[in-house]
Design goal:
- The complex is a heterotrimer of chains A (about 90), B (about 425) and C (about 450).
- With about 90 residues, chain A is mainly α.
- In chain A, about 35% of the residues lie in helices and about 5% in strands.
- Chain A has a two-stranded antiparallel sheet.
- The longest helix of chain A is centred in the N-terminal third of the chain and has 18 residues, at about 20-35.
- Chain A is flat.
- In chain A, about 30% of the residues are buried.
- Chain B folds into three domains: about 1-175 and about 240-260, no CATH class; about 270-360, no CATH class; about 375-430.
- Chain B has helices at about 50-60, 150-170, 200-215, 270-280, 285-295, 300-305, 315-325, 335-345, 350-360, 375-385, 390-395, 400-410, 415-430; strands spanning about 1-10, 65, 70, 75, 85-90, 95-105, 105-115, 120-125, 130, 140-145, 180-185, 190-195, 225-230, 235-240, 250, 260.
- In chain B, about 40% of the residues are buried.
- Chain C is built from 16 helices and eleven strands.
- In chain C, about 35% of the residues lie in helices and about 15% in strands.
- The chains are: A mainly alpha (about 90), B alpha+beta (about 425), C alpha/beta (about 450).
- Chains A and C meet through helix 1, helix 2 and strand 2 of A and helix 9, helix 10, helix 11, helix 12 and helix 14 of C.
- Strand 2 of chain A pairs antiparallel with strand 9 of chain B.
Chain lengths: ~90, ~425, ~450
């Protein structure tokens, strides 16, 4: 894997690594991808199996049920006038 | 010039797309939230049947191919308003594809109609980013067109027709319409993201067309970029940071499944352009009149359909227009509107007083419902006897007849045309 | 049928029993790190309640739930996972605490977390992963069942290494609502216990449709007994000699009741790559949401713009999580998605087809892991790929969502040996019955019996 491709992946995934980590993790990843390439030798004409079982369609009726403990949700974050504080744009 | 649109429309459901939180209007931030629309660890989505039904109605109305089975994908990107840092949306398994919407004389192709969830609302307060998750999880459809729109007029017509179709499916997009535009005068495609409201959409397009035209005129190169619309200054501006490396990395959302669409009922589309054509065929009524009256008014269309035939279409239209004008709206019982239509049919010049009487349920006083020539001649003669100078005036200037017609018509509640029928004859013979 | 739960219900409990239990397990936990968090309120539980634990990726309302990750430090779920709600609602069970695990379930040995759990049979040995704590807790406590979770072998492996029964049901049988996602199309809540009977009791309480999980859809469970046991040649080839020898002796014992046959299946030995591709692709989307301000870790860098904020906050992921996020992001890239992700899904379909055919005829049996229990120091020196290869027996049933169970069948140098039996989808009772039969002839051994009466 080219260095710039590795850097692109880090950027897309919002991860940063030290130079030492980069060297180690990139080597691991290259080894694993090399192993994944062994799939090329397996033929499959099957449709993709998104789940192991057939998951039947189940839809929810359009009914309002209020969540009972909204404070417990908001408590997890920082609040400002009832708004949840997010990072700067 | 080519313009393509991605229009986002909120669907009229009681609860959110994947959870049971209320969609009602509220001023209190973060008051209609739960672990699912906040994307808490462990929460899972459950698809709202009404949202699917509503989206299905829209896809069908836009003549799309309806996918027998729909599925959802995760679109991964990082932004503070996106609780899971992926949006649940649709790709290949979108509810509709390859449709069209007809505007005057042409079809604008629809590439795709897809269901997706709305992110949270961001409120900026100084440097602070404040998040209100009440909006998070609102069911949306995104309508993606091919770049088939070529003028501002076509854009207006597209939006007007789309709005009418959506209106009849129970979706009002007046304020809520959110769209991304792509506009290319030359080869290069410029995107304008997150334009809100119909007015802004037109203004942003106009600005962008002028900007690109100006650049071409000056021999400048147009950058392939994403721009935002500044509502306050009415201009588009380059977005500061373009993540060229950004990749959404779509995958099938494994928390959901593939849903069969068979058996889900949906509302039927109403195409006002066609309806107006059909109604006015063989009449002297301009289809545009019907279209304008009914595009965003289900009640008006209902009344026209109800009374057309029993009365002449012209009378129906005229009676309704008078009622609308003097009463301010058509929110009255059918039999009251019918009274106004009946007056029009009789050729009565409908006055504000008459509509008020109808609205209040009083008897409408019409002196002459239908006057014969003899009766009309008498009225004119009586008027001349009272105003002898008029005759002298008429002999000098034939246009004085118009004055006579106006006064008599007003006093007698007759239609001026009716009065005109005899005035010249009586005047010249007197 | 042996059941410690039923035995417990019949026995008289001395006064102060639960206080003693909590204090004793808390003491032992300092050595074994089975629990990340012990519920001190358990001492006030209803008379006769049986303790149950849940893996730290299963949400318990009001109780810190971290999935073994620094990213979720301080996260207090505002709701119970459906499985937890049903356990509590049964009236027989009380919540004892959350059990240790590899961060987000990423690991074979339980080492990918701040303070790894230690093997109940020898603290210098690995506990197995990712449900390390659940297995150790089950090996420490006499009357207890553990709700745990498997994506690619996270129940079987630690259960085998700690000499307990580990049951992984058919995909979609137990609601995942409240389970912190690793890979949604592979994650399955299951049960560890000291007997197949206890696993079955808990399984019947928690399973069944849930209006909060679309994928939870398997309602009817069968128990069709099979008389054939298949041993897959290609998988056995990757097994260490001594493990092979012990396993042969198990087959000898079973041969009086079952017809044992060696079969060949090339595709089953190819399941590791597609499994990890699917798991990493899904995991990398699930882990996007951890960005340092909504819950759990509070990064606080509000002077930084959002992209830098996220990137800094996400430094708190462990190495294996970072590797899987990067690999998952790579796999999802438009340019290679068809080559890896879509291909892996197609191969999964092939594996399911092949296994369904085989499992219709009989059970598949194998050792649970192909090597003897490694010491922590030995396991720590393995590369990621060597780690993944250890999952050779557990991945086929997991990628295909087939119910399977692991059970202790012997002891080697004082360490337990585990074997795994797989059956058809929705035939879960059959493997529970298989182990129940085994338990009539084989007594499991433990070093600790906390809470014994």
């Amino acid at each position: 894997m080219e260095d710039h491709e590795f850097e692109r992946l880090l950027k897309v995934a919002r991860l940063k690594l030290t130079d030492v980590e980069k060297e180690r993790i990139k080597a691991d990843i290259e080894e694993v991808i090399g192993y994944f390439d062994s799939l090329d030798q397996v033929e499959s004409g099957e449709e993709p199996a998104y789940h192991p079982i057939r998951v039947p369609a189940r839809l929810r009726k359009d009914e309002v049920v209020e969540f009972t403990d909204i404070d417990a949700l908001k408590r997890q974050a920082k609040l400002h006038d009832g708004y949840i504080l997010g990072p700067k744009l | 010039m080519k313009i393509g649109l991605e229009v986002h429309v909120a669907l009229p459901t009681k609860s959110k797309l994947f959870c049971s939180c209320s969609m009602a209007d509220t001023d209190e931030p973060n008051s209609q939230i739960c672990p699912i629309c906040l994307g808490f660890p462990g929460a899972k989505p459950m698809l709202n049947e009404a949202a699917v039904s509503s989206a299905l109605g829209i896809a069908a109305a836009l003549h799309c191919n309806i996918n027998k089975e729909i599925s959802f994908v995760r679109k991964v990107y990082f932004y503070p308003d996106l609780p899971k840092c992926y949006q649940i949306t649709q790709m290949e398994g979108a509810i509709g594809s390859r449709g069209y919407l007809e505007i005057e004389g042409k079809e604008v192709r629809i590439r795709r109609v897809q269901i997706e969830e709305d992110p949270a609302q961001i409120v900026r307060e100084g440097m602070l980013t404040l998040l209100d998750f009440n909006r998070s999880g609102t069911p949306l459809v995104e309508i993606v067109t091919e770049p088939d729109i070529t003028t501002e007029e076509e854009l207006r017509a597209f939006i007007a027709n789309l709005r009418s179709i959506l209106y009849y499916l129970g979706v009002d997009i007046n304020k809520e319409i959110k769209a991304d535009l792509n506009i290319s005068l030359a080869e290069v495609r410029v995107e304008v993201k997150n334009v809100t409201g119909i007015k802004s959409l037109i203004e942003a397009t106009r600005f962008e067309i002028e900007r690109q035209a100006e650049a071409i005129k000056n021999g400048e190169e147009i950058a392939r970029e994403t721009r935002g619309y500044n509502e306050k200054n009415k201009l588009t501006e380059s977005l500061r940071e373009k993540e060229t490396d950004e990749e959404y990395g779509y995958i099938y959302d494994p928390d959901l499944t593939t849903f069969e669409i068979n058996g889900i009922e949906h509302a039927k589309a109403v195409y006002i352009t066609e309806v107006s054509q059909r109604l006015t065929e063989g009449t002297d009524v301009d289809p545009k009149t019907i279209k304008e009256m009914t595009m965003l008014d289900r009640r008006a269309l209902g009344l026209i359909n109800k009374f057309n035939g029993k009365y002449k279409l012209r009378s129906v239209v005229h009676g309704m227009q008078r009622f609308q004008k003097y009463a301010g709206n058509l929110n009255a019982a059918d039999h009251k509107i019918e009274k106004s239509i009946a007056l029009a049919e009789k050729g009565v010049a409908i006055t504000k007083e008459m509509i008020q009487d109808i609205a209040e349920g009083k008897e409408v006083k019409v002196k002459y419902e239908k006057v014969g020539n003899a009766e009309l001649d008498d009225m004119i003669k009586k008027f001349l006897d009272k105003n002898p100078k008029v005759l002298e005036e008429y002999r000098r200037n034939k246009k004085t007849a118009n004055l006579v017609i106006g006064i008599i018509a007003k006093e007698s509640n007759l239609h001026p045309k009716d009065v005109a029928r005899r005035v010249n004859q009586v005047l010249s013979a007197y | 049928m042996r059941s410690f739960v039923n035995e417990f219900l019949k026995l008289e409990k001395p006064k102060g029993y639960y206080e003693e239990l909590v204090s004793e397990i808390s003491m032992l936990n300092k050595e074994y790190h089975a629990f990340t968090n012990i519920n001190s309120k358990m001492i006030d539980c209803a008379e006769g309640s049986i303790p149950f634990s849940s893996k730290a990726n299963i949400c318990v309302k009001g109780f810190e739930t971290t999935a073994g990750s620094k990213m979720l430090k301080g996260y207090i779920p505002p709701f119970d996972a459906t499985a937890v709600e049903r356990m509590l609602g049964s009236g027989s069970f009380s919540f004892l605490g959350e059990t240790n695990m590899d961060e987000f379930g990423f690991g074979t040995f339980g080492l990918n977390t701040e303070t790894p759990a230690r093997n109940a049979f020898g603290r210098e040995y690995v506990a197995g992963g990712s449900s390390s704590g659940a297995a150790v807790a089950t090996a420490l406590l006499k009357y207890h069942v553990a709700l745990s979770e498997s994506t690619g072998g996270s129940i079987s492996t630690p259960a085998a290494l700690n000499g307990v029964v580990g049951f992984t049901p058919t995909y979609g049988t137990i609601s995942r609502y409240g389970l912190i996602d690793y890979a949604n199309s592979l994650d399955k809540i299951g049960v560890m216990a000291r007997s197949s009977g206890d696993a079955r009791i808990a399984f019947d309480i928690v399973r069944g449709k849930d209006r909060y999980d679309t994928t939870c859809s398997v309602e009817k469970i069968n128990g069709n007994k099979k008389t054939k046991l298949f041993v897959v040649k290609e998988l056995m080839e990757k097994t260490e000699k001594r493990v092979k020898a012990s396993f042969s002796s198990l087959l000898d014992k079973l041969s009086s009741d079952y017809e044992i046959r060696e079969i060949s299946s090339e595709i089953l030995s190819k399941s590791i790559a597609p499994y990890y591709i699917i798991a990493m692709a899904e995991a990398s989307t699930n882990l996007a949401k951890y960005d340092g301000y909504k819950y759990g870790l509070q990064y606080e860098g509000y002077n930084k713009r959002y992209n830098d904020f996220f990137t800094e906050a996400r430094s708190s992921f462990g190495d294996e999580a970072k590797r899987r996020i990067i690999l998952g992001t790579f796999i999802r890239s438009e340019s290679v998605k068809a080559k890896y992700y879509t291909k892996a899904l197609r191969i999964r379909a092939l594996i399911i087809k092949e296994m369904s055919r085989i499992l219709h005829e009989g059970f598949i049996i194998s050792p649970t892991i192909p090597i003897p229990t490694p010491k922590i120091s030995e396991a720590a020196s393995l590369t990621p790929l060597e780690n993944y290869a250890i999952d050779i027996f557990t991945i086929p049933p997991n990628i295909g969502g087939f119910p399977h169970i692991t059970f202790p069948y012997g002891y080697m140098d004082g360490m337990p040996l585990g074997a795994q039996v797989i059956t058809e989808q929705a035939n879960d009772y059959a493997v529970l019955d298989f182990v129940s039969d085994w338990e009539e002839e084989f007594e499991y051994r433990y070093k600790h019996d906390v809470g014994s009466l």
